[in-house]
Design goal:
The complex is a heterodimer of chains A (about 250) and B (about 280). Chain A has helices spanning about 45-50, 95-100, 115-125, 140-155, 170-185, 195-200, 225-230, 245-250; strands at about 5-10, 20-30, 35, 60-65, 75-80, 160-165, 190-195, 205-210, 215-220. Chain A starts with a strand and ends with a helix. The relative contact order of chain A is 0.17. In chain A, about 30% of the residues lie in helices and about 20% in strands. In chain A, β8 and β9 (about 215-220) form a beta hairpin. Chain A has a six-stranded mixed beta sheet, with helices on both faces. Chain A has a three-stranded antiparallel beta sheet with strand order 2-1-4, covered by helices on one side. By secondary structure, chain B is mainly α. Classes of the chains: A alpha/beta (about 250), B mainly alpha (about 280).
Chain lengths: ~250, ~280
């Protein structure tokens, strides 16, 4: 399997506080669907930001698609944990998704036909095509999340990186979005940060447990013992389905 | 009003004033929309007031005041921009410092300039009734340059204003476009200070765009609406101030401020009513 993300003995510390990451080595192969789990402050978002090239490691090396993260940004689609823009910003869904084409289209002037077609395809895949004329501020949390996924898909990425993409949406929308990720995994590598280990276990091919250091990275399922090591307290893993799914099955 | 229209047909200075209002509104409508959505109104104010320091030094040295203002404003934009990009938490402090120090330097040097003492009020509120043909040409050139730059790089400017981090991930040189935007703001401020005064520049940069932002669904629509509002305020301000012989710049600012207040108030009431009617009736 071709490695697409490689972290070798990576450490990182912010200006204040303890190190966020210590001696982390992790390889993600082409076509994998990796779930990144761990407690708050465990370094999950820091690791993603290192892979995206938004942070530089204090020591160690990060390679993405065989090059530096900065050089490989154009093959990465990224969905942030929180929208980093004001909801009142005057922009439509379509124009937001089109921003995902920057870097793959010309420098001057407007968008080309190919850009609009790629954006349309991304909106169709994420089922937001009907919302394309709507202002971003009028969308629900789930709709906005789908638009952000569409924006990440608009550049037809090789790697899709998602930082808690379902943190602010209800469970039904969460299942819909993860079903979409599963389908997308047929043609791209996916790395997703999540708190719900039980839920993502049904979708990912491997789980990496991170709490400043990489505690494990193994195929699912993972047991209570690993969870205890990860969160530093006694835990019990309770297999569960989301309520509405049980309702649907009965 | 009829006296104003009669005078408009007769006097070139009024026609120039109206044309200056139109040209200033185009620059402020476009640049002001970026200022409002990027929330850098305070930054634009800092750049504008630092320009006064450059003007004062230029006067003292016997050089062109517009040249001094240009150097000071561009320098202020670069310093504030650099601090904002590197140490965002100190942005407010550096803007406040440049704002106050710029004005202090301007007043100090102007007061020490030998001979005829410059009227500071003319720089604060300008005199739109004294706009010359050369000023109009300069403003038209500025408008042309702004329209050309925005047309060429509108996607990059939009990306930087909307979501800096995502823009960076898509390979947009965020620093270049952010500093470029600040330099355009500085250039707009300096050229318009001479014509309409420092306070009116800030008012025209922020108020029409702020009103437009309450209704516009896209940045282009916001720019268009802000320009139209700017033209309306400058035209109406000139007309209202003509007969009672009020200062035109101050009248325009008050009109724009009043419109903003009414718009914000009206929108708040409308939103509250809409929420109330959207709620289901309580069951008995």
């Amino acid at each position: 399997m071709t490695p697409v993300i490689e972290l070798q003995d990576v450490s990182y510390a912010y200006d204040i506080g303890p190190p966020a990451l210590e001696h982390v080595s992790l390889t993600v192969a082409e076509g994998e669907f990796l779930g990144l789990v761990g407690p708050n402050g465990g370094g999950k978002s820091t690791l993603l930001r290192l892979v995206l090239g938004l942070l530089q490691p204090a020591s160690g090396a990060v390679r993405v698609a065989g090059a530096s993260p900065q050089e490989s940004r154009r093959v990465i689609g990224y969905v942030p944990q929180y929208a980093r823009f004001g909801r009142e910003f005057p922009i439509s869904v379509e124009d937001t998704v089109l921003l995902g084409r920057l870097g793959t289209t010309g420098l001057l002037g407007g968008y080309r036909v190919a850009d609009r077609e790629a954006a349309r395809l991304a909106m169709t895949q994420t089922e937001v095509l009907d919302l394309r004329r709507r202002p971003l501020g009028s969308l629900s949390g789930g709709q906005l999340q789908r638009v952000l996924v569409a924006r990440a898909l608009a550049c037809d990425p090789r790697i899709l990186i998602l930082d808690e993409p379902t943190a602010n949406i209800d469970m039904r929308a969460e299942t819909d979005i993860f079903d979409l990720f599963k389908a997308l995994n047929q043609r791209m590598t996916i790395v997703v940060v999540s708190h719900d280990i039980g839920f993502i276990s049904r979708y990912v091919t491997r789980v990496a447990c991170l709490n400043r250091t990489l505690l494990c990275h193994q195929p699912v399922p993972i047991g209570s013992e690993v969870i205890e090591r990860l969160y530093g307290m006694q835990m019990q893993l309770i297999p569960h389905n989301h309520a509405f799914e049980r309702e649907a099955k009965t | 009003m009829s006296a104003f229209l009669d005078a408009l047909a007769l006097h070139a200075f009024l026609q120039h004033a109206l044309a200056a209002g139109l040209l200033a509104s185009i620059a402020c409508g476009i640049v002001g929309s970026y200022v409002v959505v990027k929330r850098i109104g305070y930054l634009a104010g800092g750049v504008a007031h630092t320009a006064l320091g450059g003007m004062g030094i230029a006067y003292f040295l016997g050089k062109s005041p517009i040249g001094g203002a240009l150097v000071a404003a561009l320098l202020a934009a670069l310093i504030i921009g650099w601090v904002s990009l590197r140490f965002r938490q100190h942005e407010d402090t550096i803007i406040g410092a440049l704002w106050a120090v710029g004005m202090a330097i301007g007043i100090l040097f102007i007061s020490r300039t030998p001979g005829y003492n410059v009227d500071l009020m003319s720089y604060l509120f300008g005199n739109i009734l004294m706009v010359s043909r050369a000023d109009l040409l300069l403003m038209a050139g500025l408008d042309g340059a702004i329209i050309a730059l925005v047309a060429m790089f509108r996607r990059q400017f939009l990306a930087v204003c909307f979501d800096e981090e995502f823009a960076r991930l898509r390979g947009v040189p965020v620093e270049v476009f952010y500093l470029g935007l600040l330099l355009i703001v500085a250039l707009t401020v300096v050229i318009l200070i001479q014509v309409v005064g420092l306070v009116l520049v800030i008012a025209l940069l922020t108020l029409p765009a702020a009103i437009a932002s309450q209704y516009a669904r896209s940045l282009a629509a916001m720019m268009f609406a802000a320009t139209l509002l700017g033209v309306t305020f400058t035209g109406a301000g000139l007309a209202l101030s003509y007969e009672p012989d009020l200062p035109a710049g101050a009248t325009i600012i008050l009109l724009a401020g009043l419109a903003y207040l009414l718009s914000a108030l009206g929108r708040a009431i409308w939103l509250r009513r809409r929420r109330t009617f959207a709620l289901p009736n309580p069951t008995p």
